Amino acid sequence: MSMDEENKIIVRIIKGDMSAFSLLVDKYQNLIFHITRRIVPEQMDAEDVCQEVFVKIYKSIGTFKYQSKLSTWIASIAYFTALNYLKKSKRDFTEDYPENLLDMEMDQDDPEELLIKKNTSEYINRLINQLPENYRVVLTLYHLEEFSIEEINETIGMPVGTVKNYLFRARKMLKDKITNQLEGDYEER
Amino acid sequence: MKKDEDYRIQEILDQKIKGINVPSEITDTEDFKAYELVHKLLKKEPVAHLPLSFKANVLRRIETEKKKMGDIRFYWLLGVVSFICFMAIISIFIIFKDAFTSVWVIAERFKGLVLIAIAAILAFNFVEKKSIKI
Predict the structure, then answer these.
(1) Could you give the number of structural domains in chain B?
(2) CA–CA separation, A52 and A44 (whole Å)
(3) pTM attached to this predicted model
(4) pLDDT in tens, A78-97
């Protein structure tokens, strides 16, 4: 969908055209879900937050200024709605994360964890979920949604330098963990 | 030193995302391969996804919200109109106080009858509601 088409859809939504809004839901539901799911761990809660995000988009699409990309604006609404949800439900685990993330010890390996390690993809997802929420969101926006550093800065209001730093530290931590896992597998054989 | 190497590898892979290939001897190292794997896994779509009914649920919720907003607007309008009517009636009574003197006299004389009439109307309504419930 080009920018021009998107602008036309916005105008139609403002006029109350629900079929236009339906197209918007199709296009952005995955983006919203990926961001929300990285902040809100429970699937059902994440679904509720996604619905809330779309209601907010519908109500405030008239205030969209066309100065940023629509995806950035939508991602921003998703990010802050999910954060608010976390605060309200008082399930914010990430307040006291240590600054020295690279030295941080992840959960100890129990049998279930060892089984998960066999599936590298699932293992990395588990590792990402143990990171502080800002790291999780930055990784998701950059790698999965292919946002640029500047777009991430616009979306979550984090300085460009901090975004770069978070990306570097999170990827290094994941790489170290994966290297250890692969070495472990090799030794087992 | 190690941190510099990590930084370099990450930069090369970031360039690769943008479609720029940077030839370097570093690409043969174990670390580079591990980072490549991390990048590949980070790009992978998560298994969890929204249910198929999600879009229908969103559209239904928006319709409900719209209806709620419409109702709120209607009740506000009704409130404003009722207030204006009430003020108009009071004003008429105050402005044309003398014209209503005879009405007050009659009402004063037949107040018992007026009260009985009001009570009869209320009782009728009450009985009617009860009989509908049964």
Answers:
(1) 3
(2) 13
(3) 0.73
(4) 999 999 998 888 654 554 45
- The minimum CA-CA distance between A174 and chain B, rounded to whole Å, is 7
Does the distance separating the beta carbons of A125 and B35 come in below 8 Å? no
Q: Which residue of B has its CA nearest to A177?
A: B34
**Chain A residue whose CA is closest to B39:** A143
* B17 shares contact with chain A (CB less than 8 Å): yes
Residues A13, A122: Cα–Cα separation, whole Å: 39
Residues B66 and B36 in one domain: no
Can you read off the two tokens belonging to residue B4?
């510099």
User: How do residues A142-167 score in pLDDT, each as one tens digit?
Assistant: 998 989 999 999 999 999 999 999 99
Query: Residue A107: its pLDDT value, please?
Result: 53
Residue type, A30: N
Compare CB distances from A55 to B7, B48, B62 and report the shortest one's residue. B62
Structural domain of residue B107, as residue ranges? 100-134
- Answer yes or no: do B6 and B38 share one domain: yes
Fold type of domain A101-188: Arc Repressor Mutant, subunit A (1.10.10)
Domain with residues A3-88, CATH architecture: Orthogonal Bundle (1.10)
Cβ contact A162:A140 at 8 Å: no
